[in-house]
Amino acid sequence: MESLPYKTSFLAFLQLEKTLSVNTIESYEYDLDRLGNYLKEKKLTNIQKISDAHLSKYLQVLYDTGFAASSILRTLSTLRSYFGFLVSENIITKDPTELLEGPKFGRYLPVVLSIDEVETLFKAIDTEKQGGLRDRAMLETLYATGMRVSELADFTLEQLLWEERLVRIVGKGSKERITPIGDIALSWLSQYLEKERPRIVRPHSDSTVFLNMRGTALSRMGIWKIIQKYVTLANLSKKVSPHSFRHSFATHLLEGGADLRVVQEMLGHANIVTTEIYTHVDREYLKEVHRSFHPRYNQ
Fold this sequence. Notes:
The chain is mainly α.
């Protein structure tokens, strides 16, 4: 069910009856293809049997994966239009989005792992198995830098400033920031890049750091699934998502005594930091704060 039934008819309806723009229709198609992949994985092959519970769970997965609230609300709008169309065409008898609500974003408090839980999670990764070095390097990087999952998925070799022990992160709105990265994460990155990445690189691969076994960039959903695998292996009871590493990164720095303003700069919060302000911040000071307060900076 990778391609949802009647998707082509629905998109034609949007174009001919609703006269929506090409870009808007492409957004609808992207949302539907993503849902189709999810339903295929869950073996939900009968469109008649899709319920509001299935769709509510799907929206929650998007949230846990790190999708912005605006993206999830757009997805919800797409689902309402699509299933409404199916009802109007007598393809289904009940609209599963009729009572569907978007996630109550304000109710979700960030899940923060303790330092011991971070250690437990990392130790659950068998680096001798295929993908193990990649997964360890990836999660170490996520925790060491406070990257968003989308930033991690797009992370390239050119963004690694090895000698300076810094990473250049391209955030929201293509804004760049520089964040320190500790020795432990760099050590795992080095092992992955030397021993495992060359085995999964394909002729079509680009310079993305973290690749799947087909040699293409891991998706946000792919990263989320990898994390869930190790959360299960580590027997952690918390609901851990890629965001949890970002929140843990910030929390552990602040609990260690780091300055809030500097942590906000490392996180790249758009409402706090602008490119102009950042150019006046001493990189050595950033590194000193990171070195002094991040629990996994040094070997």
